[in-house]
Design a protein that fits this description.
- The chain has 337 residues and is mostly beta strands.
- It folds into 4 domains: 2-146, Mannose-Binding Protein A, subunit A (Mannose-Binding Protein A, Chain A); 153-182, Laminin; 184-244, Complement Module, domain 1, CATH 2.10.70.10; 256-306, Complement Module, domain 1 (Ribbon), CATH 2.10.70.
- 6% of the residues lie in helices and 34% in strands.
- The chain is built from 2 helices and 25 strands.
- It has helices spanning 39-49, 59-68; strands spanning 2-5, 11-17, 28-32, 52-53, 76-83, 86-89, 117-120, 131-134, 141-146, 158-163, 166-171, 175-176, 182-183, 196-199, 210-213, 219-222, 226-228, 241-244, 256-261, 272-277, 281-284, 288-290, 303-306, 310-315, 328-333.
- The strands form 8 sheets. Strands 1, 2, 3, 4, 5, 6, 7, 8 and 9 form a 9-stranded mixed beta sheet that branches. It has a 3-stranded antiparallel beta sheet with strand order 14-15-17, with no helix packed on it.
- The longest helix has 11 residues, at 39-49.
- It starts with a strand and ends with a strand.
Length: 337
């Protein structure tokens, strides 16, 4: 035990106990063996000298408290109270969980509709360690705890959970290890032909890394544009693909030829076709056309057209058969140039 002076100047004898004594990093329990308090007074007492009224997380803690504390006829206040109709641990701000719940038979019954605070039956002949809701103005022993959890514990990547004589870290999603220092890793992304830009808050291709993808001009993207590394060590989606934009297929001009080259696939972005015509025909349109990033061909459609004929005049001064005037004979001759 130890003697301290409370905020009212009274000499108060405190008793403290824990599995590991006063070792650093141990959650210790404390109570006063002199004087009883209302629930509010008990909480003020605990907050003055320790951390708060005790918060209980599981049945193991209840068994430990029941064995370690002395019997007191009015029993002990614990740090749970009905807030907004919900039983809440005031020291941690957590609501009551099923694994910690330990109500006595028929409790809580909220008799007379004013039982918002809770006592624990320490060393009671029947239902030892069980809880009972009580009016908050009744006077009982204050059962306090001193926290071992500190802000720097668990690397700020997990929740520090008090245990008897120690603590443990419950890591947030994406982290693991005793102090939550280890980060979940995802597979390294190595896209082929798809530009990628990544950010890595916790290390290359680890939890919460994000990678953005975009295609070059003339290509369209298929799939998610952003991937994120999840706590499951999986990426949120598959790497997207970039597919060359397609143009309509070009047909060979009638009475002509077409010679096409394809960089990214038949009649896709970058494809080029050169045209020529057979002898006696001329090309109308561009000699070559290219598939653009818009999915259209440069220029208008190309075709071959027959050459126009020369009008040749052949004059004859006489003919064998008589005629009243010289006969002019005209002939059409088409000559390739």
């Amino acid at each position: 035990g130890e003697h301290v002076e409370d905020r009212h100047g009274a000499d108060v004898k405190l008793w403290s106990f824990s599995v590991w004594g006063w070792a650093v990093g141990a959650w210790t329990y404390h109570y006063s063996d002199q004087g009883d308090y209302t629930w509010e007074q008990a909480r003020n007492f605990c907050q003055t000298f320790f951390t708060d009224l005790v918060a209980i997380q599981n049945q193991q803690e209840i068994e430990y408290l029941n064995k370690s504390l002395p019997f007191h006829g009015r029993y002990y206040w614990i740090g749970i109270r009905k807030l907004g109709g919900i039983w809440t641990w005031v020291g941690t701000g957590k609501t009551l969980s099923k694994e910690a719940e330990n109500w006595a038979q028929g409790e809580p019954n909220n008799r007379r509709s004013n039982q918002d605070c809770v006592e624990i039956y320490i060393q009671r002949p029947q239902q030892a360690g069980k809880w009972n809701d009580e009016p908050c103005n009744r006077k009982k022993k204050a059962l306090c705890y001193r926290a071992s959890c500190q802000p720097f514990l668990c690397s700020q990547r997990g929740e520090c959970v008090e245990t008897i004589g120690s603590y443990r870290c419950e890591c947030y999603p994406g982290f693991h290890g005793p102090e939550c220092t280890d980060v979940v890793q995802c597979a390294k992304l190595e896209p082929k032909g798809v530009p990628m830009n990544c950010s890595h808050p916790y290390g290359d291709f680890s939890y919460n890394s994000t990678c953005e993808f975009g295609c070059h001009e003339g290509f369209e993207q298929r799939g998610a544009g952003v991937l994120r590394c999840l706590p499951s060590q999986e990426w949120s989606a598959n790497i997207p693909t970039c597919t060359a934009i397609k143009c309509s297929a070009l047909t060979t001009p009638k009475m002509g030829q077409a010679a096409c080259s394809h960089v990214h696939g038949d009649f896709t972005f970058g494809s080029r076709c050169a045209f020529s015509c057979q002898k006696g025909f001329v090309l109308k349109g561009l000699e070559s056309r290219e598939c653009t990033a818009l999915g259209t061909w440069t220029g208008d459609s190309t075709h071959c057209k027959g050459k126009s004929c020369d009008l040749t005049r052949i004059c004859c001064s006489r003919v064998l058969s008589p005629a009243p005037w010289p006969m002019a004979v005209y002939a059409l001759a088409c000559q390739p140039t």
